Amino acid sequence: MTSIHFPDGFLWGTATAAYQIEGAWDEDGKGESIWDRLCHTPGMIADGSTGDVACDHYHRWPEDVASMAAMGVKAYRFSIAWPRIFPTGGVQVEPRGVDFYRRLIAALREQDIQPVVTLYHWDLPQALQDRGGWINRDTALRFAEYADFAFRTFGNDVPLWVTHNEPLIAAFFGYGNGTNAPGLRRSRDVLTVGHHLLLSHGLAVQAFRAARLRSATPGAPDPRIGIVLMIWPHHPASRHPRDVAAAQRSDGAMNRLFLEPLFHGRYPDDMLRHFRRRLMVPRVAPGDMEIIAAPIDFLGVNTYTRLIQRADPRDLFVGARQVDPRGPTTAMGWEIYPSCIYEALMKARAYTDLPLYITESGAAFEERIDPDGGIADADRIAYLRDHIAQCRRAIQDGVDLRGYFVWSLLDNFEWNHGFSQRFGLIFTDYGTLKRTWKRSAYWYRDVIAENGV
Ligand code: FCB
């Protein structure tokens, strides 16, 4: 076994999202979110579950912070539930929601864990959805106000701010095929939704610059802002030109449609032409593209696998269909393909020299507690080891990769899969809410301590 090491200061972290762990969905004045609404609609979630209680992190966060401290993690990426702070999306602030995040951030800092805060991990206030959600341009303005409030309230204590998590999923799955909240099938609006998400990102960056945040820790770098994109490699199923074009289109819709506006200030021409034929046209106002392309400080990359695409005219969006994985898979059915890390980072680097972070990487497997009380998740350890090795490979090839965040700290509510998919380093018993470290949590603790694998 050879060992690999990482640059000093490499940020080893874990990641979660508010709706997936917090629970307390209507406590302390929190407003309803589009995920509350979706989960309360029968038939939308695979196992009929909801995030009403989830991991009850809203009450058990001290235990979760203590766990991270014991693991030695350097950073914790979590999201703020917008409707916890602004129950109806704006104007009226809920101080109890603000206090919750203030206490969490303070506790993290006390343990020397850097908070990495995502402003939008998909849980829009339902009140804004009632006014059209992201189809309505006004939502982007409301987001910028919420972001501005968050910067001015928590800003100096948060070294890394993330505007959005995977706008692709919010747009295509929320408004396209309707599997995610708000569960709509309005394909003609999908590109406008994506555009408004990006616009809101750009407006939040403006608010961030105007707030001129300064680090609360003397000598530490000042807070920085970026965005998190899902970047999965797309490969053609064969060398047939039709399949090659199909993979280019799916890459175009899932990767380039977001990378190009952010870094080049325009949408990819081939994709605009393609979507126009499907009557999908984004509503872009003059000046929007400059706002979207305003300089940021880093890019976060979420990657889990690759997708192999075959041309299929029946597909509504890109005329491509995923074929079966070509190797072993995780419980999600995702191929275990460690090079996805390297390829995704290289893809990002083709657009920008900014510092990059792997903001999510991890795997779900079927598991239960062994009779001896442990969880021997050797498959997760192997997955993480091989994916971390690809991070090292990218660094060797010149990528400015600054950190790696395991998805997820603990088993949680996996969106429309409900509780059926366990991604955690820590096992959650959904009956008792007891947490148990899996073997991978101990293993990750050693990786962090040694700064390598
Ligand atoms: C990502 C999401 C995250 C989690 C993982 C498995 O797309 O950002 O919330 O669901 O997938």
Set out the fold topology.
Blueprint: E1 11-15, H1 18-21, H2 34-39, H3 57-71, E2 75-79, H4 82-85, H5 95-110, E3 114-120, H6 126-129, H7 138-154, E4 160-165, H8 167-175, H9 190-211, E5 224-230, E6 234-236, H10 241-264, H11 269-277, H12 288-292, E7 298-302, E8 307-311, E9 320-322, H13 339-349, E10 356-361, H14 378-396, E11 401-407, E12 426-428, E13 435-437, H15 439-450
Parallel strand pairs: 1-2, 1-11, 2-3, 3-4, 4-5, 5-7, 6-8, 7-10, 10-11
Antiparallel strand pairs: 8-9, 12-13
Bound molecules: beta-D-fucopyranose (FCB).
The site of beta-D-fucopyranose has 12 residues, from loops.
Features:
globular, three-stranded mixed sheet, 453 residues, binds beta-D-fucopyranose, 15 helices, TIM Barrel
